[in-house]
Design brief:
Layout (H helix, E strand, L loop, with lengths): L4 E6 L6 H18 L6 E5 L3 E6 L2 H10 L6 E10 L3 H13 L7 E8 L8 H15 L4 E2 L6 E8 L2 E5 L3 E5 L8 E5 L5 H11 L3 E8 L6 H15 L6 E6 L1 H10 L2 H23 L3 E3 L12 H8 L6 E2 L7 H10 L3 H4 L6 H5 L10 H8 L4 H10 L2 E3 L16
Parallel strand pairs: 5-6, 5-7, 10-11, 10-13, 11-12, 13-14
Antiparallel strand pairs: 1-3, 1-4, 2-3, 4-8, 4-9, 7-8, 12-15
Bound molecules: adenosine-5'-triphosphate (ATP) and magnesium ion.
Protein backbone atom coordinates (compact mmCIF):
# COMPACT_ATOMS: atom_id res chain seq x y z
CA UNK A 1 0.00 0.00 0.00
CA UNK A 2 1.45 3.35 -0.94
CA UNK A 3 0.54 6.25 1.30
CA UNK A 4 0.68 9.77 -0.10
CA UNK A 5 0.50 11.85 3.04
CA UNK A 6 0.02 11.71 6.80
CA UNK A 7 -2.74 13.56 8.55
CA UNK A 8 -1.51 14.75 11.96
CA UNK A 9 -4.01 15.73 14.67
CA UNK A 10 -3.06 17.96 17.62
CA UNK A 11 -3.93 17.37 21.23
CA UNK A 12 -4.64 19.86 24.00
CA UNK A 13 -7.83 21.13 22.45
CA UNK A 14 -8.25 23.62 25.25
CA UNK A 15 -5.40 25.68 23.83
CA UNK A 16 -6.66 29.01 22.63
CA UNK A 17 -5.54 32.07 20.73
CA UNK A 18 -1.89 32.94 20.72
CA UNK A 19 -0.94 29.79 22.63
CA UNK A 20 -2.27 27.70 19.82
CA UNK A 21 -0.04 29.49 17.32
CA UNK A 22 3.03 28.89 19.47
CA UNK A 23 2.02 25.26 19.89
CA UNK A 24 1.56 24.69 16.15
CA UNK A 25 4.75 26.53 15.22
CA UNK A 26 6.84 24.58 17.74
CA UNK A 27 5.29 21.30 16.73
CA UNK A 28 6.02 22.00 13.08
CA UNK A 29 9.65 22.81 13.89
CA UNK A 30 10.06 19.72 16.06
CA UNK A 31 8.62 17.46 13.37
CA UNK A 32 10.87 19.09 10.78
CA UNK A 33 13.82 18.54 13.09
CA UNK A 34 13.02 14.88 13.62
CA UNK A 35 12.68 14.38 9.85
CA UNK A 36 15.58 16.56 8.78
CA UNK A 37 17.49 13.71 7.10
CA UNK A 38 14.43 12.73 5.01
CA UNK A 39 14.84 14.83 1.88
CA UNK A 40 11.36 14.45 0.42
CA UNK A 41 9.35 15.33 3.54
CA UNK A 42 7.31 18.53 3.52
CA UNK A 43 4.88 19.87 6.11
CA UNK A 44 1.73 21.91 5.77
CA UNK A 45 0.24 23.21 9.00
CA UNK A 46 -3.38 24.26 9.45
CA UNK A 47 -5.13 25.56 12.54
CA UNK A 48 -6.17 22.19 13.90
CA UNK A 49 -4.25 19.68 11.81
CA UNK A 50 -1.07 19.26 9.83
CA UNK A 51 -0.17 17.29 6.74
CA UNK A 52 3.14 15.57 6.19
CA UNK A 53 3.84 14.81 2.55
CA UNK A 54 6.71 12.63 1.34
CA UNK A 55 7.30 11.71 -2.29
CA UNK A 56 9.72 8.97 -1.42
CA UNK A 57 8.16 5.75 -0.12
CA UNK A 58 11.08 4.98 2.22
CA UNK A 59 10.85 8.48 3.71
CA UNK A 60 7.16 7.93 4.31
CA UNK A 61 7.84 4.69 6.17
CA UNK A 62 10.45 6.34 8.37
CA UNK A 63 8.15 9.28 9.06
CA UNK A 64 5.45 6.88 10.26
CA UNK A 65 7.99 5.24 12.60
CA UNK A 66 9.16 8.55 14.07
CA UNK A 67 5.90 10.39 14.61
CA UNK A 68 4.82 8.40 17.71
CA UNK A 69 7.80 9.90 19.61
CA UNK A 70 6.98 13.53 19.05
CA UNK A 71 5.11 15.31 21.84
CA UNK A 72 2.12 17.43 20.85
CA UNK A 73 0.64 14.91 18.41
CA UNK A 74 -2.64 13.37 19.52
CA UNK A 75 -2.98 10.92 16.64
CA UNK A 76 -2.03 10.52 13.01
CA UNK A 77 -3.23 8.63 9.97
CA UNK A 78 -1.48 7.65 6.78
CA UNK A 79 -3.64 8.80 3.90
CA UNK A 80 -3.93 7.53 0.32
CA UNK A 81 -4.85 9.95 -2.44
CA UNK A 82 -6.75 9.42 -5.68
CA UNK A 83 -8.69 11.41 -8.22
CA UNK A 84 -11.94 12.91 -6.95
CA UNK A 85 -13.92 10.48 -9.04
CA UNK A 86 -16.35 7.89 -7.67
CA UNK A 87 -14.80 4.88 -9.42
CA UNK A 88 -11.29 5.89 -8.41
CA UNK A 89 -12.45 6.35 -4.81
CA UNK A 90 -14.13 2.92 -4.74
CA UNK A 91 -10.97 1.29 -6.01
CA UNK A 92 -8.80 3.12 -3.49
CA UNK A 93 -11.19 2.16 -0.68
CA UNK A 94 -10.50 -1.50 -1.41
CA UNK A 95 -6.73 -0.89 -1.37
CA UNK A 96 -6.91 0.95 1.94
CA UNK A 97 -9.09 -1.62 3.70
CA UNK A 98 -7.07 -4.48 2.24
CA UNK A 99 -3.74 -2.92 3.25
CA UNK A 100 -3.61 -4.90 6.46
CA UNK A 101 -3.35 -1.72 8.53
CA UNK A 102 -6.79 -2.30 10.01
CA UNK A 103 -8.45 -5.38 11.35
CA UNK A 104 -11.89 -6.19 12.66
CA UNK A 105 -15.38 -7.20 11.56
CA UNK A 106 -17.47 -4.07 11.83
CA UNK A 107 -17.16 -1.23 9.40
CA UNK A 108 -18.38 2.26 8.55
CA UNK A 109 -17.68 4.85 5.86
CA UNK A 110 -17.51 8.50 6.84
CA UNK A 111 -17.50 11.18 4.18
CA UNK A 112 -16.16 14.71 4.42
CA UNK A 113 -16.98 16.76 1.38
CA UNK A 114 -15.00 20.02 1.42
CA UNK A 115 -15.48 20.23 -2.35
CA UNK A 116 -19.17 21.03 -2.60
CA UNK A 117 -19.12 20.80 -6.40
CA UNK A 118 -18.56 17.04 -6.21
CA UNK A 119 -21.57 15.53 -8.02
CA UNK A 120 -22.86 13.20 -5.25
CA UNK A 121 -24.38 13.92 -1.88
CA UNK A 122 -22.89 12.38 1.25
CA UNK A 123 -25.57 9.70 1.67
CA UNK A 124 -25.13 8.47 -1.87
CA UNK A 125 -21.38 8.32 -1.51
CA UNK A 126 -21.64 6.36 1.71
CA UNK A 127 -23.94 3.83 0.04
CA UNK A 128 -21.85 3.48 -3.08
CA UNK A 129 -18.49 3.16 -1.38
CA UNK A 130 -19.80 1.07 1.53
CA UNK A 131 -21.63 -1.26 -0.84
CA UNK A 132 -18.52 -1.74 -2.93
CA UNK A 133 -16.36 -2.51 0.11
CA UNK A 134 -18.92 -5.06 1.38
CA UNK A 135 -19.00 -6.76 -2.03
CA UNK A 136 -15.21 -7.25 -1.84
CA UNK A 137 -14.99 -8.08 1.86
CA UNK A 138 -18.16 -10.12 2.54
CA UNK A 139 -17.03 -10.89 6.11
CA UNK A 140 -17.53 -7.25 7.13
CA UNK A 141 -20.76 -5.91 8.59
CA UNK A 142 -21.80 -2.28 8.79
CA UNK A 143 -21.98 -0.76 12.26
CA UNK A 144 -22.57 2.94 12.86
CA UNK A 145 -21.41 3.13 16.47
CA UNK A 146 -17.77 2.35 17.27
CA UNK A 147 -16.94 0.28 14.21
CA UNK A 148 -13.63 -1.65 14.19
CA UNK A 149 -12.78 -0.11 10.84
CA UNK A 150 -13.65 3.49 10.09
CA UNK A 151 -12.95 4.45 6.50
CA UNK A 152 -12.61 8.22 6.23
CA UNK A 153 -13.04 9.73 2.78
CA UNK A 154 -12.14 13.40 2.52
CA UNK A 155 -13.09 14.96 -0.81
CA UNK A 156 -11.17 18.15 -1.47
CA UNK A 157 -10.58 20.29 -4.56
CA UNK A 158 -7.27 18.59 -5.33
CA UNK A 159 -8.43 15.01 -4.95
CA UNK A 160 -9.95 12.42 -2.63
CA UNK A 161 -8.04 11.37 0.52
CA UNK A 162 -8.73 8.04 2.19
CA UNK A 163 -7.61 6.60 5.49
CA UNK A 164 -8.71 3.82 7.82
CA UNK A 165 -6.08 3.70 10.52
CA UNK A 166 -5.60 6.05 13.42
CA UNK A 167 -2.23 5.74 15.19
CA UNK A 168 -1.93 7.06 18.71
CA UNK A 169 0.53 9.96 19.08
CA UNK A 170 2.71 10.69 22.09
CA UNK A 171 0.25 13.31 23.43
CA UNK A 172 1.54 16.14 25.59
CA UNK A 173 2.80 19.43 24.22
CA UNK A 174 5.58 20.22 21.74
CA UNK A 175 8.96 20.38 23.47
CA UNK A 176 9.96 24.03 23.74
CA UNK A 177 6.42 25.39 23.88
CA UNK A 178 6.57 25.71 27.68
CA UNK A 179 9.97 27.19 28.42
CA UNK A 180 13.38 25.81 29.31
CA UNK A 181 14.62 24.08 32.48
CA UNK A 182 17.72 22.41 33.87
CA UNK A 183 17.42 18.72 34.75
CA UNK A 184 19.64 17.32 37.52
CA UNK A 185 20.54 14.03 35.90
CA UNK A 186 22.18 11.30 37.97
CA UNK A 187 22.80 7.89 36.50
CA UNK A 188 19.80 6.52 38.40
CA UNK A 189 16.34 5.43 37.35
CA UNK A 190 14.37 8.44 38.55
CA UNK A 191 15.86 11.60 37.08
CA UNK A 192 15.57 10.58 33.38
CA UNK A 193 11.90 9.83 33.99
CA UNK A 194 11.48 13.27 35.60
CA UNK A 195 13.05 14.87 32.52
CA UNK A 196 10.83 12.88 30.18
CA UNK A 197 7.66 13.89 32.02
CA UNK A 198 8.46 17.59 31.80
CA UNK A 199 9.47 17.31 28.16
CA UNK A 200 6.03 15.83 27.64
CA UNK A 201 4.56 19.01 29.10
CA UNK A 202 6.46 21.03 26.52
CA UNK A 203 9.56 21.96 28.55
CA UNK A 204 12.88 21.83 26.72
CA UNK A 205 15.84 20.84 28.88
CA UNK A 206 19.55 21.04 29.48
CA UNK A 207 20.93 18.38 31.83
CA UNK A 208 23.54 18.75 34.59
CA UNK A 209 25.51 15.88 36.06
CA UNK A 210 27.89 15.82 39.03
CA UNK A 211 30.88 13.52 38.61
CA UNK A 212 33.60 12.77 41.15
CA UNK A 213 36.54 11.30 39.30
CA UNK A 214 38.48 9.16 40.07
CA UNK A 215 35.78 7.82 42.42
CA UNK A 216 33.32 7.75 39.55
CA UNK A 217 34.47 6.14 36.33
CA UNK A 218 34.33 6.98 32.64
CA UNK A 219 31.67 4.28 32.35
CA UNK A 220 29.48 6.13 34.85
CA UNK A 221 29.80 9.19 32.64
CA UNK A 222 28.96 7.13 29.58
CA UNK A 223 25.76 6.10 31.30
CA UNK A 224 24.75 9.71 31.65
CA UNK A 225 25.61 10.62 28.06
CA UNK A 226 23.58 7.62 26.89
CA UNK A 227 20.64 8.72 29.05
CA UNK A 228 20.92 12.22 27.61
CA UNK A 229 20.89 10.82 24.11
CA UNK A 230 17.83 8.72 24.87
CA UNK A 231 16.02 11.79 26.24
CA UNK A 232 17.02 13.67 23.09
CA UNK A 233 14.92 11.31 21.03
CA UNK A 234 11.73 12.83 22.42
CA UNK A 235 11.60 15.83 20.17
CA UNK A 236 14.49 18.11 21.08
CA UNK A 237 18.21 17.69 21.64
CA UNK A 238 19.41 17.86 25.22
CA UNK A 239 22.70 19.53 26.09
CA UNK A 240 24.68 18.05 28.99
CA UNK A 241 26.85 19.90 31.55
CA UNK A 242 29.24 17.75 33.57
CA UNK A 243 30.44 19.26 36.83
CA UNK A 244 33.73 18.22 38.48
CA UNK A 245 32.54 17.62 42.04
CA UNK A 246 35.38 15.73 43.73
CA UNK A 247 36.99 18.64 45.52
CA UNK A 248 33.72 19.84 46.98
CA UNK A 249 32.78 16.38 48.17
CA UNK A 250 36.12 15.98 49.90
CA UNK A 251 35.67 19.34 51.59
CA UNK A 252 32.18 18.37 52.73
CA UNK A 253 33.38 15.08 54.21
CA UNK A 254 36.03 17.03 56.16
CA UNK A 255 33.82 19.86 57.37
CA UNK A 256 30.39 18.43 58.02
CA UNK A 257 29.52 15.58 60.41
CA UNK A 258 28.62 12.35 58.76
CA UNK A 259 24.91 12.46 59.40
CA UNK A 260 24.51 15.90 57.80
CA UNK A 261 26.94 15.55 54.91
CA UNK A 262 24.26 14.30 52.54
CA UNK A 263 22.20 17.43 53.15
CA UNK A 264 25.18 19.69 52.53
CA UNK A 265 26.12 17.73 49.40
CA UNK A 266 22.64 18.32 48.02
CA UNK A 267 22.75 21.99 48.96
CA UNK A 268 26.06 22.42 47.11
CA UNK A 269 24.73 20.60 44.07
CA UNK A 270 21.66 22.79 44.03
CA UNK A 271 23.70 26.00 44.28
CA UNK A 272 25.89 24.92 41.39
CA UNK A 273 22.87 23.87 39.35
CA UNK A 274 21.25 27.22 40.06
CA UNK A 275 24.26 29.13 38.76
CA UNK A 276 24.41 27.04 35.60
CA UNK A 277 20.64 27.52 35.22
CA UNK A 278 21.09 31.25 35.33
CA UNK A 279 23.91 31.20 32.79
CA UNK A 280 21.90 29.20 30.27
CA UNK A 281 18.74 31.24 30.81
CA UNK A 282 16.60 28.38 32.15
CA UNK A 283 13.73 29.16 34.50
CA UNK A 284 13.47 26.11 36.74
CA UNK A 285 15.39 23.09 38.01
CA UNK A 286 14.02 19.56 37.64
CA UNK A 287 14.91 16.67 39.96
CA UNK A 288 13.89 13.03 40.24
CA UNK A 289 13.06 13.27 43.93
CA UNK A 290 10.20 11.14 45.22
CA UNK A 291 8.85 11.66 48.71
CA UNK A 292 10.13 9.26 51.34
CA UNK A 293 12.25 7.20 48.98
CA UNK A 294 15.52 7.83 50.83
CA UNK A 295 16.70 9.94 53.78
CA UNK A 296 17.40 12.96 51.58
CA UNK A 297 13.84 12.91 50.29
CA UNK A 298 11.78 13.47 53.41
CA UNK A 299 9.91 16.77 53.62
CA UNK A 300 12.37 17.96 56.27
CA UNK A 301 15.33 17.11 54.05
CA UNK A 302 13.80 18.69 50.97
CA UNK A 303 13.17 21.84 53.00
CA UNK A 304 16.76 21.99 54.26
CA UNK A 305 18.12 21.43 50.74
CA UNK A 306 15.71 23.84 49.08
CA UNK A 307 16.71 26.65 51.44
CA UNK A 308 19.68 27.64 49.24
CA UNK A 309 17.55 28.94 46.39
CA UNK A 310 14.24 30.57 45.50
CA UNK A 311 14.29 29.08 42.00
CA UNK A 312 11.28 26.85 41.30
CA UNK A 313 12.22 23.19 41.64
CA UNK A 314 10.03 20.86 39.64
CA UNK A 315 9.71 17.36 41.09
CA UNK A 316 7.32 15.48 38.84
CA UNK A 317 7.93 12.16 40.65
CA UNK A 318 7.26 13.48 44.14
CA UNK A 319 4.09 11.40 44.62
CA UNK A 320 4.97 8.35 42.55
CA UNK A 321 5.82 4.88 43.75
CA UNK A 322 9.12 3.35 42.69
CA UNK A 323 7.27 0.71 40.67
CA UNK A 324 5.36 3.34 38.71
CA UNK A 325 8.63 5.13 37.97
CA UNK A 326 10.33 1.92 36.86
CA UNK A 327 7.39 1.19 34.62
CA UNK A 328 7.77 4.50 32.80
CA UNK A 329 11.55 4.17 32.58
CA UNK A 330 11.12 0.82 30.86
CA UNK A 331 8.69 2.24 28.37
CA UNK A 332 10.89 5.21 27.46
CA UNK A 333 14.01 3.09 27.08
CA UNK A 334 16.05 4.57 29.96
CA UNK A 335 15.73 1.67 32.43
CA UNK A 336 18.35 -0.60 30.87
CA UNK A 337 20.85 2.27 30.83
CA UNK A 338 20.04 3.32 34.41
CA UNK A 339 20.62 -0.14 35.87
CA UNK A 340 24.17 -0.44 34.54
CA UNK A 341 26.20 -0.97 37.69
CA UNK A 342 28.43 2.13 37.85
CA UNK A 343 28.66 4.23 40.97
CA UNK A 344 27.13 7.67 41.36
CA UNK A 345 29.15 10.33 43.19
CA UNK A 346 26.62 10.36 46.02
CA UNK A 347 26.61 6.63 46.59
CA UNK A 348 30.35 6.67 47.13
CA UNK A 349 30.28 9.40 49.73
CA UNK A 350 27.00 8.31 51.29
CA UNK A 351 27.19 8.27 55.10
CA UNK A 352 25.80 5.23 56.88
CA UNK A 353 23.12 7.10 58.82
CA UNK A 354 22.02 10.35 57.19
CA UNK A 355 19.53 12.41 59.19
CA UNK A 356 15.96 12.20 57.96
CA UNK A 357 15.15 15.45 59.81
CA UNK A 358 18.16 17.69 59.32
CA UNK A 359 17.91 21.08 61.03
CA UNK A 360 18.70 23.97 58.70
CA UNK A 361 20.47 25.91 61.48
CA UNK A 362 22.76 22.98 62.21
CA UNK A 363 23.63 22.52 58.54
CA UNK A 364 24.31 26.25 58.17
CA UNK A 365 26.44 26.17 61.30
CA UNK A 366 28.78 23.46 60.01
CA UNK A 367 28.94 24.96 56.53
CA UNK A 368 29.97 28.32 58.01
CA UNK A 369 33.42 27.03 59.03
CA UNK A 370 34.54 26.65 55.46
CA UNK A 371 34.58 28.97 52.46
CA UNK A 372 32.43 26.95 50.05
CA UNK A 373 31.49 29.68 47.52
CA UNK A 374 34.88 29.75 45.72
CA UNK A 375 34.69 25.97 45.23
CA UNK A 376 31.13 26.34 43.94
CA UNK A 377 32.20 28.99 41.44
CA UNK A 378 35.17 26.92 40.36
CA UNK A 379 32.97 23.87 39.75
CA UNK A 380 30.61 25.97 37.64
CA UNK A 381 33.52 27.40 35.67
CA UNK A 382 35.24 24.07 35.09
CA UNK A 383 32.23 22.27 33.72
CA UNK A 384 32.39 20.40 30.44
CA UNK A 385 29.45 20.98 28.14
CA UNK A 386 28.54 18.34 25.64
CA UNK A 387 26.52 19.89 22.87
CA UNK A 388 23.28 18.48 21.54
CA UNK A 389 23.40 14.83 20.68
CA UNK A 390 22.64 13.45 17.33
CA UNK A 391 18.97 12.72 16.88
CA UNK A 392 18.28 9.06 17.37
CA UNK A 393 14.95 7.34 17.49
CA UNK A 394 14.15 5.55 20.70
CA UNK A 395 13.12 1.97 20.22
CA UNK A 396 10.91 2.00 23.26
CA UNK A 397 7.23 1.15 23.17
CA UNK A 398 5.09 4.01 24.41
CA UNK A 399 1.68 2.73 23.42
CA UNK A 400 0.10 2.36 26.83
CA UNK A 401 1.88 5.24 28.48
CA UNK A 402 -0.08 7.83 26.64
P1 LIG B 1 17.87 8.94 40.75
O1 LIG B 1 17.26 7.59 40.49
O2 LIG B 1 17.41 10.00 39.79
O3 LIG B 1 19.36 8.89 40.91
P2 LIG B 1 17.55 8.64 43.53
O4 LIG B 1 16.30 7.96 43.90
O5 LIG B 1 18.81 7.87 43.47
O6 LIG B 1 17.30 9.39 42.14
P3 LIG B 1 18.93 10.63 45.04
O7 LIG B 1 20.22 9.95 44.83
O8 LIG B 1 18.53 11.08 46.41
O9 LIG B 1 17.68 9.84 44.54
O10 LIG B 1 18.89 11.90 44.08
C1 LIG B 1 17.78 12.74 44.07
C2 LIG B 1 17.88 13.62 42.84
O11 LIG B 1 19.04 14.46 42.92
C3 LIG B 1 18.05 12.84 41.57
O12 LIG B 1 16.82 12.39 41.06
C4 LIG B 1 18.70 13.86 40.69
O13 LIG B 1 17.74 14.76 40.17
C5 LIG B 1 19.61 14.59 41.65
N1 LIG B 1 20.96 13.98 41.64
C6 LIG B 1 21.45 13.04 42.45
N2 LIG B 1 22.73 12.72 42.16
C7 LIG B 1 23.06 13.47 41.09
C8 LIG B 1 24.23 13.62 40.26
N3 LIG B 1 25.33 12.90 40.47
N4 LIG B 1 24.17 14.49 39.25
C9 LIG B 1 23.07 15.23 39.01
N5 LIG B 1 21.95 15.14 39.75
C10 LIG B 1 21.94 14.28 40.76
MG1 LIG C 1 20.51 8.20 42.44
Amino acid sequence: MEWNEILIRYGELSLKGRNRNVFVRKLKNNIKDAMRDLQSVRLKAERDRMFLVADDEEDMKKAIERLPHIFGIQSFSPVAKCEADLDAIKKKAIDVIGSGETTGRTFKVEIKRADKTFPYVTGELQQEIGGHVLSQFPELVVQMKKPDILLLVDIRKDGAFLTSKVFKGAGGMPVGSNGHSLLMLSGGIDSPVAGYLLMKRGVSIDAIHFASPPYTSELAKRKVTDLTEQLSSFGASVRLHIIPFTELQQAIVKQVPDNLSMTTTRRMMLQIADKVREEIGALAIITGESLGQVASQTLDSLTAINEVTATPILRPLIAMDKLEIIDISQKIGTYDISIRPYEDCCTIFTPSNPKTKPKIEKVQHFESFFDFPPLIDEAVRNRTTIEAFEQRQADADFSDLL
